[in-house]
Amino acid sequence: MNVLQSWFAFLGKWGPTYLSGMLVTLKISFFGVLIGFVLGLLIALMRRSRIKPLEWLAKAYVEVFRGTPLLVQVLIAYYGFAAIIPETYGSLKNPFVLSMFAICMNSSAYVSEIIRGGINAVDRGQGEAAASLGMTKKQTMRHIILPQAVKTVLPALGNEFVTLIKESAIVAFVGIEDIMFEAKVVAGATYLPFMPYITAALIYFVLVFSLSKLLGIAERRMANSDSRA
C-alpha cells in the first residue's frame, strides 16, 4: 500500500510532465505514419514502374532505411543534415523537424512494402477486366487496385502506428521532449531512476495495449462488413 501511495503521490506531482511527453510521442507517431503513408505509396508505385532507374532507386531506398537502425537515422539527420542546411533555412534545423524527417523516411520504407503487398494481393483478373473495358493502367491502378489495396493494408498501417509509438522513444537522444525525455528529466530531478522509468513503461504499455485493442475491433468490423457484402 505504501508503494501505491508513493506512486500516486509521484503521479500527482509529475503527471502533467508525463502527459506533455505523451502528447509529443503521439504527435510524432501519428505524423510519422501519415507522411510515411504518402511517401510509401509513391515508393511502392515507383517499385512497380517500368522505368528501371525509378525501380532501382525505390529498391535502394527501401533497403537502406529498413537495413539501418532508426536511432542511427535520427542521429544522422540531427547531426549531419543540421550541418549542411544553410542558415537561411534555420527553421529546418529544429531538432523536432530533423527527427520527424528521419522517422517519416524510415516509416515510408516499411509502409511501401505494406502497400506493395496489398497491391499484389489484389486479384490480377480485376486488372484484366478493367483493361477489357478500355481503362488505362493508370486508371486501373487509381480506381480499381489502390482502393482495394489500401483497405486491405489498413490493419497493417495501424500496427505501424503502434510500432512507431515504441520506436519513437529514441528521439529523446536528441532532446525531443517525448515520454522518455520527460522520464529522464524526472529521474534527474528526483534522483529516483526506477519509478520514473517504470512510469514511462506503463504509459507506453497503456498506449500500445489500448490502440491494439481498438485496431482489433476495427479489423473485425471491416471483416464483418466484407462478409455481408
Automatic annotation (TrEMBL):
GO terms for biological process: amino acid transport. It is a multi-pass membrane protein. Its main location: membrane. Keywords: Amino-acid transport, Cell membrane, Membrane, Transmembrane, Transmembrane helix, Transport. CDD domains: TM_PBP2. It comes from the Bacteria. The keyword Metal-binding does not apply. It is found in: Cell membrane. GO terms for cellular component: ATP-binding cassette (ABC) transporter complex. One of its GO terms (molecular function) is transmembrane transporter activity. Residues 22-215 form the ABC transmembrane type-1 domain. The chain crosses the membrane at residues 20-46, 67-85, 194-215. Belongs to the binding-protein-dependent transport system permease family. HisMQ subfamily. This is Arginine transport system permease protein ArtQ. It comes from Aedoeadaptatus ivorii. The gene is artQ.
